[in-house]
Amino acid sequence: MRFKMILTSSLSKKIFMSIAGLVWTGFLLIHLLGNLQLLSSNPDPFNKYSYFLTHQTGEFIYLAEFLLVFFLLTHLVYGIWVQIGNWLARPQGYSMVAWAKGKSRRSFGSVTMIYTGILIFVFLIFHLLHFKYGSVTMYTPEGFTHQIPNLYQTVIEFFQNPWNVAFYVVIMVLIGFHLSHAVWSSFQSLGLGSKWFTSFIYTVGVLYAIVISFGFVFLPIWIYFTRGGAL
Asked: Beta strand 148-149 with 138-139: parallel, antiparallel or unpaired?
């Protein structure tokens, strides 16, 4: 009974949702840094990086993938649970969405969290099906004596379609809006909400959201116009 209360109390829901969200917030930065190798016209760096993660890290990659899926589902389930509770507690929505300063930090990002979150989850399924489990050609990079997947070519070819580029840009902008509120609210839910720290982490969260969103928006646009050309 006590264990059930820990998992289902209002405070626990927000804490678990926040921790899981922060894990994915950090993962996005790591993922973006790895993807910056796509800026090179040489496919080897990105493909060797991808091959290292998927084939040369042993059991660690399976543990990492399990934890990412676990935290993603935890964030999604508790996020929907909290939102439904908010709807039930306030059956009539606000008549007008407006920016609110102060403790509420009400913004477009905050009032669309549930919708952008679900769209991002659907996108992740599509993303994995195409890039992780989709078809890929094999090639032998410099310094290797065996073939490895040419994921670089898959990415470059995918982003030669302007509709694919437009789709990804829209989703990355939505991720930016989601992050702009998520970082700040996560620390609030964890009880780190002093006056100074609240203002600081809100600013950091918005800047972080801009950097992540811009990075992931820039990559497909760059690839489309340069066909993988180097800086």
From this structure: antiparallel
| Among candidate residues 46, 61, 48, 56, the one with its CA nearest the CA of residue 155 | 46
User: In the structure encoding, which two tokens stand for residue 125, read together?
Assistant: 């399924």
Query: Can you tell me the mean pLDDT for 62-87?
Result: 90
Q: Is the pLDDT of residue 103 over 70?
A: no
Q: Look up residue 81 and give its two tokens.
A: 């649970």
* 175 is a domain residue: yes
What DSSP state is assigned to residue 106? B
CA distances from 64 to 21, 50, 53, 171, 177 (A): 15, 14, 10, 24, 26
pLDDT of 73: 94
Would you say residue 95 lies in a domain?
no
Please report how the helices 113-131 and 151-158 are oriented relative to each other, as an axis angle in degrees rounded to 10: 130
Domain-located, residue 5:
no
* Domains in the chain, number: 1
Residue ranges making up the domain that contains 172? 13-84+103-226
Distance of alpha carbon 79 from alpha carbon 88, whole angstroms: 14
Residue 1 counted as domain residue: no
pTM of the full predicted structure? Answer: 0.85
pLDDT tens profile 18-57: 899 999 999 999 999 999 999 998 999 999 999 999 888 8
What span, in angstroms and rounded, lies between the C-alpha atoms of 53 and 57? 6
